[in-house]
Design a protein that fits this description.
The chain is an alpha+beta fold. The chain contains 14 helices and 19 strands. The protein has three domains: 187 residues, FAD/NAD(P)-binding domain; 87 residues, D-Amino Acid Oxidase, Chain A, domain 2, CATH 3.30.9.100; 52 residues, no CATH class. Its EC number is 1.-.-.-.
Length: 420
């Protein structure tokens, strides 16, 4: 029987909400997690989980369950930025994770939801939150209903919105955006049979990009990204548009797609939400995942960041609910730490997601492509297991430029444009 009073209510049970509910329930808290979807359920996503993200799954005892869904391990990555080619892989992570995975969300989210339930969280699927319950300015619960049912009310010491970019919780509490920028691109993607080209992430001349990586059911996700002002034109014939972009960037892969690839599902078009950070805590409430912080999916950090900051938030909630410190103080620290830890990834994503490189990034990546050890550092950076302050360190870059005999006039060791 479901209770009406909980320690924490989590609204949204995908890649941020389910891990949060699971981690809190494992610590013995009374947790209710609700979602308007019923699982298995798909959602727009490019599925990519970095080594750091798989490390969280492993620490939670869930990586083997995700792998058991049939998603293949990827141990070689191909990146290109116009005429710069970087191929290889990162070193094995300290936790032993030596691959990246791109599971279908129907598979991944189901594993996470089931794990939350097994941990003791109470779950209501197919539940739409219609509003929050307030006591003065403090959130004390939620109202909502299952499909066709009467409105119900549940109360808790804390309500967490893990309900995405259009978060009902964020809107209800008036969470303000304090950092942001307009989204640059759109994406079209689908799933293909017969395309066995490993992991590709290629940005070409003309501000266009395609990506592809293997996923469940022996299929390959193929995605194309272009600037938003090309969306209306592209949607007229996306099959032709995908083929054109892939062929222009890599004619050999374009031929493979044309001759052997068969699209297995309808296209998923996405106009990206803007990049933003929202205030993610207040009296009786918090935000996690895309509800509080979103950036362009170009670097594929959405799922990994959802895992990372769900765990961080669970730790801060535990501090508050256990009496170790005031809950409101712990939640404020969660936002500060999230912003600090994600700053380098956020800045890098916004800098390169315009589908063109600044002179600084052009010089860094071009020099990287010329050195085997720095290529491993690059993929470690992408994987979340190599410190950005070392990869982009001025001394490290100066040494790299010397090692590969990079042209003096093109050596950028800082974003200010100062050359070595």
């Amino acid at each position: 029987m479901k209770r009406n009073m909980y320690d924490v209510i989590v609204v949204g049970t995908r890649v941020a909400g389910s891990p949060l509910a699971m981690l809190l329930a494992r610590q013995g808290y009374r947790v209710l997690a609700v979602d308007r979807a019923t699982f298995p359920s798909d959602t727009p996503s490019t599925h990519y989980i970095h080594q750091a993200g798989s490390g969280f799954l492993k620490s939670w005892g869930l990586l083997d369950r995700v792998v058991a869904t049939g998603v293949p391990a990827i141990r070689h990555l191909n990146f290109s930025y116009t005429d710069i080619d970087i191929a290889g892989f990162a070193r094995t992570a300290p936790d032993g994770v030596d691959a990246v995975y791109c599971p279908r969300r129907t598979a991944l989210d189901t594993v996470l939801v089931e794990a939350a339930g097994e941990a003791g969280a109470e779950l209501i699927q197919g539940f739409t939150v219609s509003g929050l319950v307030f006591d003065g300015d403090r959130v004390v619960g939620i109202r909502g209903s299952e499909a066709g049912g009467t409105e119900q009310e549940f109360r808790a010491k804390l309500v967490v919105g893990a309900d995405g970019a259009n978060s009902t919780v964020a809107k209800a509490v008036g969470a303000e955006t304090y950092e942001g920028s307009a989204a640059a691109c759109f994406i079209y993607y689908s799933y293909y049979d017969g395309v066995d080209w490993g992991m590709q992430h290629r940005t070409g001349f003309g501000e266009q990009q395609f990506a592809g990586w293997p996923t469940n059911d022996d299929q390959t996700l193929v995605a194309v990204m272009r600037k938003r002002d090309r969306f209306r034109e592209f949607r007229q014939d996306p099959d032709a548009g995908v083929q054109e972009v892939v062929s222009q960037i890599d004619p050999e892969l374009g031929e493979l797609l044309r001759d052997k690839g068969t699209r297995a599902e309808p296209f998923r078009p996405m106009l990206y939400p803007d990049n933003y950070r929202r205030k993610s805590h207040g009296p009786g409430w918090a935000l996690v995942g895309d509800a509080g912080y979103h950036k362009d999916p170009f670097t594929g950090w959405g799922i990994t960041d959802a895992f990372k900051y769900a765990q961080l938030l669970s730790e801060k909630i535990h501090q508050g609910l256990s009496g170790a410190r005031p809950l409101d103080e712990a939640l404020a620290e969660y936002q500060v730490e999230r912003d600090a830890q994600s700053a380098s990834t956020y800045e890098l994503t916004l800098s390169i997601s315009e589908l063109s490189l600044t002179p600084y990034y052009d010089s860094v990546f071009r020099a990287t492509s010329m050195d085997e050890e720095y290529i491993k550092n690059f993929f470690g950076l992408i994987a979340g297991i190599y410190p950005p302050e070392k990869y982009f360190g001025e001394e490290e870059l100066a040494a790299l430029y010397e090692k590969v005999n990079f042209p003096l006039e093109a050596r950028h060791v800082s974003k200010s444009g100062v050359t070595a």
